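In the laboratory, one determines a bound structure by crystallizing the protein with its ligand and collecting diffraction data. In a computational setting the workflow is compressed into a single prediction: the sequence and the ligand go in, and a structural description comes out. We illustrate the idea with flavin-adenine dinucleotide.
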Amino acid sequence: MNAFRPSRHGSRRPKVSFEFFPPKTAEMETALWESVRRLEPLVPSFVSVTYGAGGSTRERTHATVKRMVEETALKPAAHLTCVSATCDEVDDVIRSYWEAGVRHIVALRGDPAGGLGTAYEPHPQGYHQTSDLVAGIRRVGDFEVTVSAYPEKHPEAASLDADIEALKKKVDAGATRAITQFFFDNDVYFRYLDKVRARGIDIPILPGIVPVQNFKQTANFARKTGASVPQWLADRFEGLEEDAATRRLVAAAVCAEQVLDLIDRGVSDLHFYTMNKADLVYAICHLVGLKPEKTAAQAVAAE
Ligand code: FAD
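The predicted complex, in structure-token form:
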């Protein structure tokens, strides 16, 4: 039996982390904070907040992360990209996170300014590669730095091996953890992990799990990011286009199956792309043995 799978005998539970995106409207803000509050008692290792394409959410990402520092017990990580910005501008953002008490950054290059599929042009005075950004962050402060990893290779990479070399450069520059692009076939992840370890990269590579809230949207996004969508997954959602309730049940079953298999095969840390929706993620966490922890105040009241 696997050590991480919850059992009647009470074995170890996996650790989890959650990704959110900064809200655009007051309504989205309410939804985000409801989700944050629902997932907070599961005591994630960290939560992260994305950075809009081209830095478009700079202020909103900062405000969201800052509020998490000030109002929750969570350890937030701020995503940061270097597209369309000078090194000085990016360094200012890094410093503002340090001043706000943030100690963890998810460092990314970002998509080309012209959109996915166009060539990436670094800003002439900017960080050219993510590894340069990682080194820049480490120069500004003693941050924990997480980077991305692509089990099916980044769409721009010439080969998977070339992409693993890029990951090695990010690690050599100071990255201490990677989160993968989402995938649905766990074998893809484990094959990638073998290759990464064979290249001498020994940082944790957290599997990025996307609960399929909307199959059509997920499939479209997967096409753009180079993640494959197996036919069996499409088959499971086929015919449910007008049936949101059944879709949700199927999504929970599919995600549970993936997560339990990862845990069975030794994975101890899972990263969930929440899309700011807590319910499915909460249910999956419950299934793998993660229950809300009492706050100190609740524990005292219960005595
Ligand atoms: P990189 O590691 O920079 O790789 C991009 C390409 O450059 C690859 O082909 C790689 O092989 C190559 N490369 C990298 N370094 C070198 C090098 N030193 N020499 C030669 N080639 C190199 N985007 C956002 O805009 N905001 C976000 O908040 C965000 N969060 C993300 C979180 C995760 C977990 C993931 C997986 C992606 C996220 N993205 C985000 C998307 C990401 O910005 C895009 O996929 C972008 O196109 C690549 O940036 P990267 O840092 O992921 O990849």
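The radius of gyration is 19 Å. Keep in mind that any predicted model is a hypothesis to be tested, not a measurement.
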